[in-house]
Each structure stands twice: as C-alpha cells, then as structure tokens.
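Entry:
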Amino acid sequence: MPQLIDAFARKFYYLRLSITDVCNFRCTYCLPDGYKPGALGNKSFLSLDEIRRISRAFASLGTEKVRLTGGEPTLRRDFTDIIAAVRENPEIRTLAVTTNGYRLARDVAAWRDAGLTAINVSVDSLDARQFYAITGEDKFTQVMAGIDAAFEAGFEKIKVNTVLMRGVNDTSLNSFLNWIKHRPIQMRFIELMQTGEGGGLFQRHHVSGEVIREQLLRQGWQLQARARSDGPAQVFSHPDYLGEVGLIMPYEKDFCASCNRLRVSAIGNLHLCLFGESGIPLRDLLADDGQLDDLQMRIQGGLRGKRETHFLHQGDSGITQNLSFIGG
C-alpha cells in the first residue's frame, strides 16, 4: 500500500476530518461570542458522498485512524451515516470523534453500532458551576450522563479533554485524578494556545503542561510508549489508577518531530499542519468516484510542501480557533 511520507521522513497514519464549523457551546478560550454563521460565504460543508470519497482516498494511502471533528461534529443530522461511510474502509482501524458530549447520552449506542471505536469528550471542569462559566452552557449533568452512556454502550475507554488554564482549573489536578482512579478514562490536559484574537486570554491563563508533568512524576506516574497512529499526547499511567493522564504541549521543543496527522477542513481543504493558514483544495476532485486516482495524487503531491515545524512560538496559529483541533 502507498504511504504518505513527507520530506522529513515523517509518516502519516492519522486524518482529522472536520465535518462542520458549527458549535453550540461558547467556550471562553474558543468561541466566547458563540458560532457566527456566514463566515464561509456560500461554501457548504462536505456532503456524505464527499466524506466517503475523502476517507476512501486516505485509507488507500495508509491512513489507519480518522477523527471526526468540528465545530461540534455530532450536530450534523447525518452523523451516524458519516460514521458508517468512513467505516466502509477496512484499512481504517480506529474511527474517533471529539465532541462536547451534548448528544452522547441520546445517540452514543447508535454511533457504536455504526462503527465508532473511540470518543474524546471535552470537559474543562468537574464543578457544574465552573463548567457553565467556561462553556456558556448548563449541560454538565447531561455530559456526565453521556460519558456513563458511552461505557454502557460498550466503549472500554473514554478520553476526556481539558484545556489547562491558570487561575481557572490548573489547581484541580487532584480532583481529576480522584475521578479517574476507578474509571477507565484517559484525562488529557491541553495547553492553552494563543489563537485568533485571544492574546489577552493567553497571557492571563496560559500554564505549561510541564507543571503537571513534574507533579505526576513525583507521584509515581510513568510515561507510556506511543503507537504510530496515536495523537500527540504524552500518556502516563500509575499502578494504583484505572485511568491514565495525557499531556498535550504544543509549545514544547520537538512537538512536531513525531507529527503523523493531516487535516481536512469542513469545506474540503487539506491542511498539512493543524495550525496552517492555507489549505490545498480537494473539493473539485470529490464530485465522483472516478476521480480517486487524481485525488490521491493531489494529496501525495501536497505533502511535499509540509513544513518541519509549526510557528506557534511566533504567535501564528493559522486558522486554528478551536482547541479540539489538537486534542487527538
């Protein structure tokens, strides 16, 4: 099978596929004013057939893992059909979703039946009042019930994403650790990033994941080996805990050295870096099944332009406005 390899010998097994930009939460670090429709002009989101063709092309190029993202991907009425379409490809072993958990309790069993294999849920606080203050939605109880429903539907492990913020939740590590002591949850702390116009927020609340890592190591947590299609998290386990801890630190030196992910936006542009500004259009090659060879060639050709590193240290986060983009 052909394999996607860039000029720095990095191999790409993992596709993050955005299927909508719409989100119904108003998280302070992402969409504090809520989603604003019309930003895409007249461009519509990828159709079910276009998603089917994209997943087929990437599967034939060695992709083993696809993560459906947004916005909030589960807001799409055809979300269950999208899962089934991606799972038509036997080469794709892992099909995951990153969600705010809004519809988990209602629909997770159907998603499991359609072929979803992994779930990441964004939960920035275990305190209902603080959860509401961060997300703008009084849905904490509903999201917690959704996580329970996912376990009942047969998911053996759930990943929970938390954006780490100084003065907000950075002192809650012990509460999170107590929560996962007897639950098979991988608690993932994501460093706050400077995105869009959020420079002030970043200056006030950014805290390095190194603080959490040092605390974990002092408490006997041990770093685990990383599989080739895993996301960027440094994962730690402890013999006394059923759960795990993952740290995602995009500002750390050599963060990009192990990059194995590409992204396709909700309007069909290939982004070689999750923080990249410009994208390579794919949509003109998604009209019918006969364009598969040309689609594969454009994806492979585009990869030659992938840069060695991102430019977050210079304050350049590209089009990334939503931290779910990096919480793989």
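The two ends are 25 Å apart (CA to CA).
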